[in-house]
Design goal:
- The complex is a heterodimer of chains A (224) and B (219).
- Chain A is mostly helical.
- Helix content of chain A is 75%, strand content 0%.
- Chain A has one domain: MetI-like fold, CATH 1.10.3720.
- Chain A is elongated and about 75 Å long.
- Chain B has helices spanning 6-43, 48-61, 65-78, 85-111, 114-122, 127-157, 169-180, 183-212.
- In chain B, helix 1 (6-43) packs antiparallel against helix 2 (48-61), helix 1 runs parallel beside helix 8 (183-212) and helix 6 (127-157) packs antiparallel against helix 8.
- The longest helix of chain B is centred in the N-terminal third of the chain and has 38 residues, at 6-43.
- The radius of gyration of chain B is 21 Å and the shape is elongated.
- The N and C termini of chain B lie far apart (64 Å).
- Classes of the chains: A mainly alpha (224), B mainly alpha (219).
- Chain A: It is found in: Cell inner membrane; Cell membrane.
- Chain A: One of its GO terms (biological process) is amino acid transport.
- Chain A: One of its GO terms (molecular function) is transmembrane transporter activity.
Chain lengths: 224, 219
């Protein structure tokens, strides 16, 4: 192997990497928050919602969980304009991430909801809580606390999976790596450095989500 | 320009899907072999071995599969090897699957009661004997449903190899779209084919989970 590694030139491209990183972080934030919200809504629909709604949600979950993210992305970005739904690459990337996380989140949150004993609903009702209050305080919050680690892992997986959005020219971290690669022909270094950034991002995100868990569930957290 | 009927599109996609299936099989089987080796190192006594596997899992689970594919594709090239896309794809997917399978199986091994290790060690068994006769037979029962479930991730993971130029179902979808200008139909069909590959695996994982969990039904 007669290849001299050279990382010095990377400094020249740090604004490109920084911008890519910012886009990846932004996609993760928006996708994470909206994806979890969609997951909660779908979990409610599957576990407690009206019976006509359940098969639709089930079909959505099965469809998304059994097809690759890349194809979902391509379908949204290239396929939906046929229905008159045209959107920019950032919107398409975000939509794909929300739809993807929503399906996985639904299954994870549903598992948490179904672990709630039936008597809890009755207990909530006997305290004079409305159905919505019961769902929020008695079912959802304890369920989220129970499944928070699994949900956190899924959010990290979706963040890492977002590398594919570079394929529809969303200018994320992977796009930045491809850009640098095409300018410098230093493929290995460009991808190696961006891989390290992703690793740092994954570790940071996991810590952040753990912190969020401690903040949202402080009372119960003390008992852990 | 020639006209494509729907049947032409489907036929081309199905032909390409063979490579998705083949690559999935290679990745899953190769990943299982490497993953089993890593599992032995991870659960053995000692410090260096388990720490290495831990770091390995952290790196492969904490970075995008796409980056791993790029690094395999361009990294092997540095050694002066002319890297065909299928080689980089196979290598990256095997190493990636191994990381996940090791971690899944470690959980299963750890679910076997501690006392089983002590009992077998008091019978004078060595580590390999303990694993072979006592721990693995019990862990296997727990391991089958999540392992089958993970095979779905492998099939979906192969879609990313289209980006480094391996011609499988996703790449064929892009190529056919460029020829037909019907992305809605083509990507819909591609999704449908992936679904037909993955859904039976997901379902059987769920069924196995219910079946193999008979002993714990009251929990």
């Amino acid at each position: 192997m007669n290849y001299a590694f050279d990382y010095g030139w990377l400094f020249e491209y740090w604004p490109v990497l920084a911008k890519g990183l910012a886009v990846t972080v932004e996609l993760t934030l928006v996708g994470g928050v909206l994806g979890v919200a969609l997951g909660v809504a779908c979990a409610w629909a599957r576990a407690l919602g009206p019976s006509w709604l359940r098969p639709f949600v089930a079909a959505y979950v099965e469809l998304i969980r059994n097809t690759p993210f890349l194809i979902q992305l391509f379908f949204i970005f290239f396929g939906l304009p046929a229905l008159g739904l045209r959107m920019g690459e950032l919107e398409a990337a975000n939509l794909a991430m929300v739809v993807n996380l929503g399906a996985y989140g639904c299954e994870i949150i549903r598992a948490g909801i179904q672990a709630t004993p039936k008597g809890q609903f009755e207990a909530g009702a006997s305290l004079g809580m409305s159905r919505i209050q019961t769902f929020w305080h008695v079912v959802l919050v304890p369920a989220l606390q129970r499944i928070w680690p699994a949900l956190s892992s899924q959010i990290v997986i979706v963040m890492l999976g977002s590398a594919a959005v570079s394929q529809i020219a969303t200018e994320d971290l992977t796009f930045a790596a491809n850009f640098i690669q095409s300018r410098t022909f230093r493929a290995f270094e460009a991808y190696f450095v961006s891989t390290l950034i992703y690793l740092a991002l994954a570790i940071a995100l996991r810590q952040l989500l753990r912190g969020v868990g401690w903040t949202i569930f402080p009372r119960r957290g003390a008992a852990r | 320009m020639s006209d494509f009927t729907t049947w032409d599109i489907v036929r081309n996609l199905l032909l390409a899907a063979r490579w998705t299936v083949l690559l999935s099989l290679v990745s899953f089987i190769g990943g299982s072999i490497v993953g089993a080796l890593l599992l032995f190192i991870r659960t053995a006594k000692g410090r260096l071995g388990p720490a290495f596997v831990k770091a390995y899992v952290e790196v492969f689970q904490g970075t995008p599969l796409l980056m791993q594919l790029f690094l395999a594709f361009f990294g092997l090239g540095l050694f002066g090897i002319d890297v065909p896309a299928w080689l980089a794809a196979g290598l990256a997917l095997i190493l990636w699957s191994a990381a996940f399978l090791t971690e899944i199986w470690r959980g299963c091994v750890e679910s076997v009661a501690r006392g089983q290790w002590e009992a077998s060690s008091s019978l004078g068994m060595g580590y390999v004997q303990q694993m072979r006769h006592v721990i693995l037979p019990q862990a296997l029962r727990v391991a089958i449903p999540p392992t089958v479930g993970f095979s779905v991730q492998v099939v979906k993971g192969t879609a990313l190899t289209s980006i480094i130029g391996f011609v499988e179902l996703s790449k064929a979808g892009t190529v056919v779209t460029n020829a037909t200008f019907e992305p809605f139909k083509v990507y819909g069909l591609v999704a449908l084919i992936y679904f037909c590959l993955c859904w039976p695996l997901s379902k059987s994982s769920q069924i196995l989970e219910r079946k193999l969990n008979v002993a714990h039904r009251n929990h």
